[in-house]
Design goal:
The structure is a homodimer of 310-residue chains. Chain A is of the alpha/beta class and 310 residues long. Chain A has a 3-stranded mixed sheet. A 3-stranded antiparallel sheet of chain A has the order 6-7-8, with no helix packed on it. In chain A, a hairpin with a 2-residue loop joins strand 7 and strand 8. The longest helix of chain A has 23 residues. At the A-B interface, helix 1, strand 2, strand 6, strand 7 and strand 8 of A face helix 1, strand 2, strand 6, strand 7 and strand 8 of B.
């Protein structure tokens, strides 16, 4: 990178007839026009977002997804007497196009029916969860939540959050937003606050209630209405802001630039039929992907997988 | 894709105390926040753009690039008595960061010194050009221009343009914007006009002249000033608008989604060590990539290269 020199302006006074149009909207080159192009493209083609929801039956997964997107996006299979609970982990996806202010979102929600249903879940973050989360956080962005938070007192909620945070740390489970992907001090401050609050304690609801003349999404109980979108009641708004309003593009970028590139490198390396020439990548053990140096691994992964294709 | 049902609103009249904040800026879900996220990301990280300039020495390639970006971005190696003209085609790249209104563009310009210098170039679009362009347009987006258009009369310019257009068509050279990638009627209308005007007849200049109190980029001659940014004089503005102000993101998208994906599929198929299982792709001959069905090939290429990695 060499510094740019602007052209000198040794203006003469020769007149000329036809005028060049004034450049009001753009700078001299017009680089910033790409922002409009990005917007036009997004408005035209929309964008995609994939969510996998993991947790035992009855945790309110489908209600939470429907609350997030204010639609009947998803209906999980409720175990009935006729249809037994699935004994194996099988993935099931549904896609919808959600449109808001002209912008289309193709949302794909994946369910994991039967996850953990055959295991005693008296104590949360038991070995299954830890083993599962350790693998999962190397493959996708993991956003843990405390579901059905309305069943916890304030003290129980904070104690539970604190216990989960300690367990995540102790078992090197690097949930989103990963510290090693903070790109500057602003990211560190913003994401640091989020990391303190995670897992969000959330409540989902698909019923609206009239409160002081306004329709409020909430759970009506004998002792009052638990308002989903009221930060004083639960942290649903923090979850929605993270997933949709502030970090959606970053979630997609990390998925594409880190997780998918790591996956490609691993697959290419696993193919023993490939010649082990200069492009051969001896990847560090997967555990290192979540170490503080993972940003470097991230860039190396992208480079290596491209090298392997050459 | 199933249609979305909005949640019913069976509001009751139960009052509640703390207020949910009014959602003024976003819709109920807040999908459109991704537009802000895209903008913030672009402003923060900037974006990249790569241009390769091809043509014999003396055509004004470096002046044209410098005119496009209003900076001394690039200085081509002028053949001197000491340093002979390169006899082989070797690529040479320089990178700069250009900033305008806070948005950064990492521009990489690649030169092809010695291209065609050893060949009689009395008649343009001779076999070398045709062979070269046929291969090139399957690998990158090609934007042909008539350089040094100030040396042509109006009649010569139009005759030259018409001859080039006929030759491109006769030899199936599919230059940018490719008809098969038009996504809707608006694309067809806008890009159709551009296709009629291509190749743009352009003039480059790195000197400014004072004309009616304004500094004008142009070439000062005995008979007047040829104004680069005056559509009545030459088509430089059309070229700049296409490359930077209207199609920059689309150029990048087609490069990434079509050319790079095709390249990956070809490289994966060439690796004979890969097992020829169900994921094996028997790609159509490269010529078909520029056929009217290339949009389908485009999508298939993306899918196939992902399948190959599985």
């Amino acid at each position: 990178m060499s510094p740019l020199r602007r052209s000198p302006s040794p203006c003469s006074s020769r007149p000329s007839s036809p005028r060049t149009p004034p450049l009001e909207r753009f700078g001299p080159v017009g680089i910033e026009a790409v922002l409009d192009q990005l917007k036009i493209k997004a408005m035209k083609t929309g964008f995609e977002f994939n969510i996998m929801v993991v947790g035992q039956s009855g945790l309110g997964k489908s209600t939470m997804v429907n609350t997030l997107f204010k639609s009947k996006v998803w209906k999980s299979a409720v175990p009935s007497l006729e249809v037994p609970t699935p004994q194996t982990l099988e993935l099931h996806s549904v896609s919808h196009v959600i449109e808001e202010k002209g912008l289309k979102l193709k949302l794909t929600v994946t369910d994991t029916p039967g996850f953990g249903d055959q295991i005693n879940n008296d104590k949360c973050l038991r070995p299954l969860d830890i083993e599962f989360l350790q693998r999962l956080c190397r493959t996708v962005n993991v956003v843990p939540v405390i579901a059905r938070a309305d069943s916890l007192t304030i003290e129980e909620r904070e104690a539970f959050r604190s216990r989960i945070q300690q367990n995540l740390k102790a078992h090197c489970i690097d949930v989103y937003p990963q510290k090693c992907f903070d790109e500057d001090i602003n990211d560190s401050i913003l994401n640091g606050k989020i990391r303190e609050q995670i897992p969000f304690a959330v409540v989902g609801a698909d019923q609206e209630h009239l409160v002081n003349g306004r329709c409020i999404l909430g759970r009506k109980t004998k002792w009052g209405i638990i308002e989903v979108e009221n930060i004083a009641h639960c942290e649903f708004l923090l979850l929605r802001d993270l997933l949709i309003r502030s970090h959606l593009q970053d979630l997609k970028d990390i998925t594409h630039n880190v997780h998918y590139e790591n996956y490609r490198v691993i697959r290419l390396n696993e193919s023993h039929q490939l010649p082990r020439g200069p492009g051969w990548v001896n990847l560090a053990p997967p555990g290192q992907l979540t170490s503080p140096g993972c940003l470097k691994v991230r860039r190396q992964a992208q480079k290596d997988s491209k090298d392997d294709e050459r």
